[in-house]
Design brief:
Radius of gyration: 19 Å
CATH superfamily of the largest domain: Nitrogenase molybdenum iron protein domain
Order of helices and strands: EEEHEHEHEHHEEEHEHEEHH
Protein name: Substrate-binding protein
InterPro entries: ABC_Transporter_SBP (IPR050902), ABC_transptr_periplasmic_BD (IPR002491), Vit_B12_bind_prot (IPR054828)
CATH topology of the largest domain: Rossmann fold
Largest sheet: 4 strands, parallel
Strand content: 15-25%
Pfam families: Peripla_BP_2
Number of domains: 2
Family: Belongs to the bacterial solute-binding protein 8 family.
Keywords: Signal
């Protein structure tokens, strides 16, 4: 079969022979996108690929530290990776052993994520544009007027928050919630707790948004560090996953945010 030469988001060569039939995904959001759009193609995924819930494929470890030997043992036609979630050395090892790897650039916006997904699904998989992608683009097209500025931790011990050019930050921005660290030089700053508290005391932020992944913030783990600050718990999947979940994420996040918004006005 004649091999095609594609190029991933980073401009790297991805040689494929026809549409891939055996795919290993090292990115949870990409796993869901492929499982929904091209059922039966996945032969491996990470331990953190929780959607679709009924996905029954061999697991190859975590995204940051996958079991590369286990990936190669599955003899995939294509491996899907992400420039932020996966280590370059693992990608290089797979390529050096003859396995094509498509690396998706970590998206900074919803349109960038959907554009990248369109490329991999239509070019690498030779599929028609999926309906869920078109629907997600329409749902997320508009940006609502700003009504809050939020600190958005994604980890604690140490505290790590959303900074500049993050997908989750753009998601919130489109729902009218600006990021308190959106202009920070780092994408994921690590401010001390005193600095985070000062954001609220000095009026630079008025909302605390706590997702349940990668760190699982709860009602008892997170809000107590910021007494008196309005907070909202949201699904980390809704906030940070790009793919089919974007169709329902808009309504779910807006509902959660509206609850605290109206509660603060009461």
């Amino acid at each position: 079969m004649t091999r095609r030469m594609l190029f991933d988001d980073l401009g790297e060569e991805v040689p494929v022979a026809g549409a891939p039939r055996k795919v290993v995904s090292l990115v949870p959001a990409l796993t869901e996108a492929v499982a929904v759009t091209a059922p039966g193609r996945l032969v491996g995924a990470t331990d953190y690929c929780t959607h679709p819930p009924d996905l029954d494929v061999p697991r190859v470890g975590g995204s940051k530290y996958p079991k590369v030997d286990a990936v190669m043992d599955l003899r995939p036609d294509l491996v899907l990776a992400n420039s932020e979630e996966n280590r370059p050395e693992d990608v290089q090892r797979l390529r050096a052993n003859g396995f094509p790897v498509w690396v998706m650039e970590a998206p900074a916006t919803v349109p960038a994520a959907l554009g990248s997904l369109r490329r991999v699904l239509t070019q690498a998989f030779e599929l028609d544009e999926p309906g869920w992608l078109v629907e997600a683009e329409e749902i997320w097209r508009e940006t609502e007027p700003r009504w809050a500025t939020a600190v958005v931790p994604v980890w604690r011990k140490p505290w790590v928050v959303l900074g500049r050019d993050t997908f989750g930050g753009d998601v919130l921005d489109r729902l009218g919630v600006a990021g308190a660290y959106a202009d920070h030089p780092d994408r994921y700053p690590r401010p001390k707790l005193d600095e985070l508290r000062a954001c609220f005391a000095e009026g630079r932020a008025d909302l605390l948004v706590l997702p349940d992944e990668p760190y699982e913030f709860t009602h008892d783990d997170g809000p107590e560090a910021f007494p008196g600050v309005p907070s909202v718990l949201v699904s980390g999947r809704d906030l940070t996953w790009y793919g089919p979940s974007l169709v329902t994420a808009h309504r779910a996040l807006r509902s959660a945010l509206d609850a605290v918004r109206h509660g603060r006005r009461a």
